[in-house]
Amino acid sequence: MDTTAPLPRTEPPLAADETTMLTSWLDYHRATLALKCADLTDDQLRQHPVTPSSLSLLGLVRHLAEVEHYWFQMVLHGVDSTGLYWTEQDPDTDFNGVATADPATDFRTWRAEIERADRAIAGLPLETVGKTLRDGAEVTLRWILVHMIEEYARHNGHADLLREAVDGRTGE
Predict the structure, then answer these.
(1) Mean pLDDT in the chain?
(2) Using H for helix, E for strand and C for coil, what is the string for the chain?
(3) Is residue 6 predicted with pLDDT exceeding 70?
(4) What pTM was computed for the model?
(5) Residue 95: closest CA among 150, 134, 33, 47
(6) CB count, 10 Å around CB of 122?
(7) pLDDT tens for residues 109-134?
(8) The pLDDT of residue 1
(9) Is the peptide bond before 12 cis (omega within 30 degrees of 0)?
(10) Is the dihedral of CA 49, 54, 55, 58 positive or negative?
């Protein structure tokens, strides 16, 4: 399986319960990122086409894998972990380490974190409070889902610009 192939992208429902609405929008934005990365070479995924920014499409994939891991595993479920790419020497290794990164491995990691996140929230009420505080405050699953939608939406805007700069492709 091509690890950079798009995820199935389904329009979120126009009417649904809150959990379905939030998870549908998150899935939509996850699939949008995969679509923005589809059909590119490893070198194109690693490119930093918008100078002086260190952003690349692969860096966004690595960052969002890190974000999925952080919010759903570490904050929601209290998993003791240092993260996937983060180091004390370079907290931005998700973006800065793409030159030698293997895109296939990073896409597998990202997709595995999505699957772990989906399992982590299955059946939980939106009022579920995370086991790890965020800046001293309790965080609910509802807040995490809304934040994740915002995180993906913001970075998908970056992905739009990066993809256009890499090969001229625009659109959804």
Answers:
(1) 92
(2) CCCCCCCCCCCCCCCCCHHHHHHHHHHHHHHHHHHHHCCCCHHHHHCCCCCCCCCCHHHHHHHHHHHHHHHHHHHCCCCCCCCCCCCCCCCCHHHHCHHHCCHHHHHHHHHHHHHHHHHHHCCCCCCCECCCCECCECCEHHHHHHHHHHHHHHHHHHHHHHHHHHHCCCCC
(3) no
(4) 0.92
(5) 47
(6) 8
(7) 999 999 999 999 999 999 999 998 77
(8) 36
(9) no
(10) positive
* Number of Cα atoms under 13 Å in the Cβ half of residue 92: 7
Please name the amino acid found at residue 103: P
Torsion angle of C-alpha atoms 43, 163, 40, 146, degrees rounded to 10: 110
Q: Domains of the chain by range and CATH?
A: 18-167 (1.20.120.450)
Residues paired with 129 in a beta bridge: 140
Q: What is the mean pLDDT of residues 67-82?
A: 92
**pLDDT for 81 beyond 70:** yes
43: buried, middle or exposed (CB in 10 Å: 19+, 13-18, 0-12)? exposed
- Dist. CA 54–CA 133, nearest whole Å: 30
